[in-house]
Target: Imidazole glycerol phosphate synthase subunit HisF
Amino acid sequence: MLSKRIIPCLDVKDGRTVKGVNFVDLRDAGDPVELAAQYAQQGADELVFLDITATHERRKTMIEMVKSVARQLNIPFTIGGGISEIADAEALLNAGADKISINSAAVRNPKLIEELAKAFGVQFVVLAVDTKYINGKNMVHLNGGRLITELETENWIKQAEDLGAGEILLTSMDHDGTKAGFDCGLLGKINHMINIPIIASGGAGNMEHFTEVFQKANVDAALAASVFHYGEILIPDLKQELKRNHIPVRI
Model:
């Protein structure tokens, strides 16, 4: 069985790592390059960097930060934020990123998924989906959760897989930052629908939540931010706990 992956997520704003609750009330969590190096040493399997205001402010992800991170890391990392065309992705790949994450631009232009997959390979394309439960349906949101769409989450993810997305990073906005646990019901449902890996995001508060999401939803990876940034969970401890629960992890 493939090892389950533990992925710290660094939300970056103005060159600093930040964290909020339900996508608002952001507070500083440190220098992203320093944090990245620490997580690699601790045994993180991958990292995700999201420039959370790049799309909203019409900015591009910081290429220089990507270069600095690439010099420090020996594990794969994904960059997202402000990627709207092939040239954006190519610049990040050349700067050292292993994968790119797209969200708003893919919703506005679904063919972008297909173009990126053809240009760089399916494994390079991560589709990030921010979802919120509204009036009995899971609805896709854009621009860091600021903008609701008419897309139902399940339909959009299936379409994205068909277009060539290699992985889904699914964030439950209802659970994000609450530390009350992942949305195992939705994650499990979507995992049954698709054949590409899912990264669970939103809601991690303790080690049991990671065990739960792997056991109940059988996701491929679990992502968290604040519990790692503020030292509430240490990755070596988490991996030992997962191993004790018979969940395969890379130690």
